[in-house]
Design a protein that fits this description.
Blueprint lengths: L3 E5 L2 E6 L2 E6 L2 E7 L4 E6 L10 E5 L3 E6 L2 E7 L4 E6 L10 E6 L4 E6 L4 E7 L8 E7 L8 E6 L3 E6 L7 E7 L4 E11 L2 E8 L4 E5 L5 E3 L3 E3 L2 H32 L13 E8 L4 E8 L3 E8 L4 E3 L7 E4 L4 H4 L3 E6 L6 E7 L6 E9 L7 E7 L5 E4 L9 E7 L3 H11 L12 E8 L5 E7 L2 E6 L2 H17 L4 E6 L4 H22 L7
Antiparallel strand pairs: 1-2, 2-3, 3-4, 5-6, 6-7, 7-8, 9-10, 10-11, 11-12, 13-14, 14-15, 15-16, 17-18, 18-19, 20-21, 22-23, 23-28, 24-27, 24-29, 25-28, 26-27, 29-30, 31-33, 32-35, 32-36, 33-34, 34-35
Protein name: Bardet-Biedl syndrome 7
Pfam families: BBS7_GAE, BBS7_pf, Beta-prop_BBS7
Keywords: Coiled coil
Length: 519
Amino acid sequence: YYCFRYISGSDLFLGASYIYNHYCDCKDQHYYLSGDKINDVLCLPPDKLSCIIPVLACQDRVLRVLQGSDLLYEMEVPGPPAVLALNNGNGGDSGEEVLFGTSDGKIGLVQITGVSPIEKWKIGNEKKRGGILCMDSFDILGDGVKELLIGRDDGILEIYKFETEKNPVFKYEYALSESVTSIQGGCVGKEGYDEIVTSTFSGWVSGLTTEPTHEECGLDELKMNHEMQNKVLSLRNELEQLQMKVLQEREKYQQSSQSSTAVSAVPTFSINDKFALNKDDASYSLVLEVQAAIDIVLLQCDVPIDLKDVDKNSAVVSFTDCESEPNGNFLLATYRCQVHTSRIELKILSIEGRYGTLQAYVIPRVQPKTCQVRQYQIKPLSLHQRTHCLDHDRPMNTLTLKGQFSFAEVHSWIVFCLPEVPEKTPVGESISFYFQNTFLDTQLECTYRKGEGYFKSDNISTISILKDVLSKEATKRKINLNISCGKDYFFTFYDFILYVKYIPVAIDFFLVGSSFRYG
């Protein structure tokens, strides 16, 4: 099914996983198969341009600009783009300006020209906030210039003001208890007062208004006006009525549950989860969000990992000692959440070379008790992150594989070893992927095709892990591999300097910052 859509007049632009379609008057016009998952789709305003130019936000940190069914060019952005929006709602004066927000919380503006893209500005995520889920442009301050409205997956709503023609400046924020799934500016509640309306994951719709809630009376005394008092009384009455309905329904359920003829049904609930690598501290962020309040989250893992404290997390954690040999468990941890907690965030530290599965058992505060399980793969090279450029001046170690394996088979091995690799086999006869180690800042180049695979890295441990894992995967499928390794003449000295440089960082990361548990 189609996950993302954009409508411009009689043109309909759809994105579903790796596939993009363009329809005009319900007739199929263009088709494109992307190299990685499509997170959002947008079209530049046709009334300002002479042609239709779609823009795809893809998971591999790339904006792909199309012309018909062909790729015009692509542009790398600082993170996986999650959402696109036209600047000022119309693409700016030229109609070519596109805003993007990434899943790791970065924002940027690019100009999509007919020849090449132009980066106008970008804003990092120094405060380590959630990813961008929605954006809008609206003049909420009433100064004649549209502000940038941002909604994040950690419930933070932000307002950026354009005080100059260059970068926007952060002005205001508001914290919601759930991820902001949509945001829009406009006049909703009262004529003459603009509002910011948001929707959240569980379905709540809320608004922030510019209408003053207090009036000045005397020197410093503030008094609520009569109209606002009436609104508050109306809301309180509505809440009391809802509470009465909830109590009545609970009593009905208790009575029906005691009946011998009643049939119990397992309640269903949705989980909004994210498991992503943080480049800044080389840790994984696990976010679990439920439409109902969370009671307990149980974590189980069959490889050594460590859990790091998160300031936003108010849950009480308890660890269970476990022996790794009989049951394969290295971690058993239980998080008991506070009342009305619907979102929990955890940080996880992993070790490259140790790979397995992390399972999260989520139990909400509903009756009868039910549980859902989410599984997350800890990959052999779990601390590597996709990039699009390498430093070719570094001395490299090489690993060469040759054998009777298909392009799809060797690609499945790479998917098993490394994160952020698309599961779909790439189009063409060969493919190259580039990675950066978020902990040691080393790099890895993977190039492979049918019957051949070439790997280069300035870290000998990366090559060793790849060699072991790929050999095991080939052995499972009874495929004979011809493996050869090589290294630069200056590798020993370079590797020594590299690891001496990062020894203090590694000690602080694994020993001082946390008490690492091996079972």
